[in-house]
Design brief:
With 294 residues, the chain is mainly alpha-helical. It has two domains: 218 residues, Leucine-rich Repeat Variant (Alpha Horseshoe); 71 residues, no CATH class. The chain contains 15 helices and two strands. The protein has a two-stranded antiparallel sheet. β1 and β2 form a beta hairpin. The longest helix is centred in the first third of the chain and has 20 residues. 41% of the residues are buried.
Length: 294
């Protein structure tokens, strides 16, 4: 591939780690089930645990449900960042109509650990009704890492109406890693230009850049574009170390990662389990290629 700047190449490499984290956490656009309140738990008990920085506060907040929100407010803005983190965990556990609002507010916290915690909770669960607030944070948040992660979260919501807003942010984004994630979010939302840019990365000379591009197809999660990956079923570059306990350490080739992504996204009927992290045989690779060229 030609014309790729060094900054963009570094951003593509960096985004792979972010993608792996997102896949592992399984971000969802569904509303969180509301916990049933335990009448034997009081907000005073919750406040005492928060003041003591006792992790049991999270369990109490879960039992209180939405009733915990008012008690959490002063702790969400406490001077001690550790207290704010615990209060944020409590807000997530309590759920209720204010959950996403508290998490979104924490994205502007002065402490990176608090901001990162808010992102982790939002990756795991976010109400689609929070999309306008997510887009505003994407536009205005001063932390480039937050802007990049928010774009990926927005993409998982599947609201194609958000694509233009994310694309506009990508055009003015100064941070290369954040911009790469914003382009990827646009690709998931169906933007043809963004998808073309990622398709171009599949031909890069650096195998790690190709690997990152293949993994992006898992995030995009559109089986109709999986045939883009067919040429890499012949790519023998060793790119990804795995350590299953029953066989010891070994490295997957890029062609093996392609099989994994195709199996997870396309869910084809194969004669073998394509979701296993292992080296696939030539016959198995051929079977996947036949599926992609159907």
């Amino acid at each position: 591939m030609t014309g790729m700047t060094a900054a963009r190449e570094r951003a593509i490499r960096t985004s792979l780690a972010c993608l792996l984290a997102l896949f592992a956490l399984g971000a969802s656009g569904c509303k969180q089930a509301q916990p049933q309140r335990n009448p034997n738990v009081s907000t005073q008990q919750l406040e005492a645990k928060l003041a003591a920085k006792d992790a049991e506060a999270v369990n109490l907040a879960r039992q209180l449900g939405a009733a915990a929100d008012a008690a959490l407010l002063p702790y969400l803005t406490a001077a001690d960042a550790e207290v704010r983190e615990l209060a944020l965990d409590c807000a997530d556990a309590a759920g209720g109509a204010q959950r996403d609002k508290r998490l979104l507010t924490a994205l502007t916290d002065a402490d990176i650990n608090v901001r990162s915690l808010a992102l982790r909770h939002l990756r795991r669960q976010v109400d689609p009704a929070s999309l306008p607030a997510l887009l505003e944070q994407l536009r205005a948040n001063e932390d480039a890492f937050v802007r990049g992660e928010l774009a990926l979260i927005i993409g998982t919501l599947g609201a194609t109406s958000a694509s233009d807003s994310v694309a506009r942010q990508a055009t003015r984004e100064l941070d290369a890693a954040a911009q790469a994630n914003q382009v990827l979010a646009c690709a998931r939302l169906g933007d043809k230009k963004a998808r073309g840019q990622i398709r171009e990365e599949l031909g890069h000379a650096d195998a790690q850049v190709r690997l990152a591009a293949v993994r992006k197809y898992e995030y995009i999660a559109d089986a109709s574009i999986l045939p883009d990956l067919s040429g890499l079923l012949h790519d023998q570059a060793e790119v990804f170390k795995v350590s299953p306990s029953h066989v010891g350490n070994y490295t997957l080739r890029l062609c093996d990662v392609v099989v994994l992504v195709v199996a997870r996204v396309g869910q084809p009927k194969l004669d073998f389990d394509g979701t296993q992290q292992r080296r696939f045989t030539p016959a198995e690779l051929q079977q996947v290629e036949t599926y992609l060229r159907r």
